[in-house]
Amino acid sequence: MTQYVLSGAENFLIKGWKKIAGSLLLQTLLVIFITFIMFGPLVNLLIWTVTESWFYPHTLPSQWGLKYWYQVFSPYSDVSSSLFTSIFIAVLSVILCLFMAIPAGYALSRRGMPLRIFFMLLFLIPQAFPNLTVYMNIARIFYQWGLNGTIAGVVLVHSVHGLMYAVWICVAAFSAVDPLQARASRNLGAGPIFTFWYVILPQASPGIIAAGIFVFLESLDEFTGTFFVGAPEITTLPLLLYNASMSGNYQVSSITALILLVPSILFMLTINRFMRPEMLSKMGK
To answer: Does pLDDT of 222 surpass 80?
Structure first.
């Protein structure tokens, strides 16, 4: 009887161990698959940046080197000027969006504002339609106004989508401000401008910085709007990446993509510092 009980317990333990081992194996395979999906394209991108020759049927490049890095950063390359143009346009887009988003976000953060929900949804309208349709119509209007092929036109079209991020994040930032501090400032005799500048704005500044970073990254990576409004007079890094890819120069396009990827990663890490939990809880409210 005792031997039968022990053998039954051993079988139970063996079956339980097999289930655990099978579950761990499945989880490990799932993690490996997700990791491959996430980082596989990035690894391929990094390989292309140091490839000089890579043709089918070779699994890996037949010749490695930094030849195309020297080509990209040479004084005669278009990458440096395109990078400067992209950064310049992104900075102007941030300034324009924050110039409109800060007062709009402060006003919309007040629950008693008439038609508050309507105005907040109004900034989402550009996101409700395909980008191609929006930019084609914007390009037609800008052509009549003489803004096609100009920095001003590209900045305006980048601000179409950037303004949505800026306004909604600024609304959340101002909604997270402690109203008692502003009320105490007014009770002590400070005016509305002094209270806004020295009490409210410093508390909302982390969210405003995060909004500026989102707009900067959106502008830096924007291709469709720049293509319809700015090309061929205005060349940014995404346009240069597109032209290099279409011409089969995967080394230059990979290096350009890596240049665009680095600030995105750095800024996203910075955003984690400024996006406070109490501010995130106010998003959309």
So the answer is: yes
